[in-house]
Design a protein that fits this description.
Distance between the termini: 17 Å
Number of strands: 5
Oligomer: single chain
Structural class: alpha+beta
Largest sheet: 3 strands, antiparallel
Radius of gyration: 14 Å
Shape: globular
Order of helices and strands: EEEHEHHHHE
Strand content: 15-25%
Number of domains: 1
Helix content: 40-55%
Number of helices: 5
Strand order of the largest sheet: 3-4-5
Length: 125
């Protein structure tokens, strides 16, 4: 049995695959924003994974330009999340291309294991 983590008042298990309806509210919004031309409520499945700060940072550096990366890394939103996450907990892990500020906040807070929802291809379970 995998590690369990609470988001939005519900326990999620690392490595477990979830349907769209099972995601925290914020993750549902992230799923829709990550690919607005698709219907994530259909056959999409999402797996809760843990990643390292190094891998998360590399992913961000590949997704953003250097200028965007530096701006977001020191943005007011990232700093606000750095204050809120330790007090209130993480409400939802990043999903797809959404949650950049949450990801950056966790890196800056020196989390050794960063939870993320991975979008699995349609029909992959």
């Amino acid at each position: 049995m995998g590690q369990k983590i609470v988001f939005g008042g519900r326990k999620y298990e690392v490595g477990h695959v979830y349907a769209f309806d099972d995601l925290p509210r914020i993750a549902k919004t992230d799923a829709i924003l990550s690919d607005p031309d698709q219907d994530p409520g259909g056959k999409w499945r999402f797996r809760l994974d843990l990643t390292s700060p190094d891998r998360a940072e590399l992913w961000l550096q590949n997704m953003l330009s250097e200028k965007e990366y530096q701006a977001e890394f020191s943005s007011a939103r990232t700093k606000r999340l750095m204050r809120l996450i330790p007090k209130e907990g993480l409400k939802s892990p990043p999903l797809g291309t959404e949650g950049v500020h949450r990801l950056m906040a966790m890196i800056r807070l020196n989390w050794q294991e960063i939870p993320v929802f991975t979008i699995l291809e349609r029909g992959e379970f």
